[in-house]
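Hi R.,

As promised, here are both runs. First protein below:
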Amino acid sequence: MSKIPVTVITGFLGAGKTSLLNHLIDIYPEKKFAIIENEFGEENIDSQLVENIQNEDIFELSNGCICCNLNQELFLVLQKLIDSNHSFNHLLIETTGIADPGSILASFISDPIVKKEFELDSVICLVDASVSKVDPEKDDILNKQIAVADLLLVNKTDLVDKKHLLELRNSIQMKNNFAQILNCVHSKPESKKILDRYAYNPSNIFQHILGIEKRESSTTNSHGIQSMLYTSVKPLNQFKIGMWLDAFLQFNQDTIYRVKGILNISDVDNRIVLQSVHTQIQATVGKAWQKEEIRESKIVIIGKDLNQDAIRKNLEELSK
């Protein structure tokens, strides 16, 4: 039985998350969506709620999708969806606009029961191009949303001039140099490849990190958010890297937002694919190293005010 892919949609209040949900429903008619909304806003994803499935929290929409409100623990909501006997093949989660989505992502990375049924597809973050200035509190929240995203949609581009848009895109890229950035109007990007990106799939992570090397390996500081790429041909000691990563994430849980990588572990024939969101770590076995290829570890770290020299020094000490 194949797992259900999960796409998490984030972005600050008013960025266009609900409009994107409607757009995805329109352009993917072959999919049977289940939709979890972290909060029900003024604009419902569909004004015609035609059937109450099992309880007051789960509704069937006129287009065959189902929707429920995240008014309790995510695990319980997911269990209700599974137990509802309603057929669906893709889960969309719209997070609240004023929170870091990291806790939701962590459940799909670390919870073995959740991982049995679901797998993360990608994280989409919408950024409102029409908002030229933000207060410090909002800026910090939005930075976190941007930092964990795999796809960044700059929305409402019709409301700004080219100079503002270019400056905004440059600012966003400095906060997350490893995500694709697309412009859109009314939450409708020109690209049709919004879902089924499988950014958390081991083989796709490997290809993605290879592509990163063609760009800058680290970014200029932008409101404290930085990203870096560490590479090394020295085999890593499995015990040392595990202990260091756990301590590193626990100690820096408020400032390290995302880690992904391909690890060359001593005496292990396969590459190990690393993913983490905040303190939650997922390591899976990737494809085998070939005799003729260079066994090289590549680790991407995105966070706030990274002490890159110290991180590189620590990682250099983790070899066998």
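And here is the second one, sequence first, then its structure tokens:
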Amino acid sequence: MSNDSLAKIINRCQQGDEKAFGWLLREYGPRLYRYFLRTSGSADDAEDLLQDLFVKLLVKIGDYHHEGRFDNWLFCVAANLVRDHFRRRQRSVKTVPMQTNGSIGTVSPAEAVSSGPRPEERLETKEQLDRLQQALGRLEPRESEIILLRHYGGLSFKEIAEHFQVPIGTALARVHRGLKKLNKMLEEKK
């Protein structure tokens, strides 16, 4: 999409146009969901964070001045939401008792006869994603954030450099070093 077209859509959002806001949701929602999923490790948290982001966007879009950096601005808001989410979680760590209703270990017929990947393939994929999530959690928070913004947020190196207020070469080097560490951690786990 051209910068002018995006500026028009943002302008329409600022004027309260629901269709334009719906377009932003459809256009950016999947990338943001993947970013939230990788940062939180939970589909429920990712959905909550995505909802929170779009509520925040409704409030903040009026203050946004389009200069061709909407993706960067939006992912900065998303990164701040993630940081706040983890701060709140650390402050309110509680244990919740498990509730059972006698249906432990049951599977519905629809789940048993799935047309998707075979159970062993799903398990292998889940294990790989769990290893990746654990390795991301072992990185420094900035390293993890920069990798997630690049690979799940889809930000360019230039946008990452602007987000962290560093030269583009520094952004490139940080992504490279972070990926190298991540790869080494994943290789150790095999």
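A quick note on the second one: Residues 18-40 form the longest helix (23 residues). Let me know what you think.

Best,
J.
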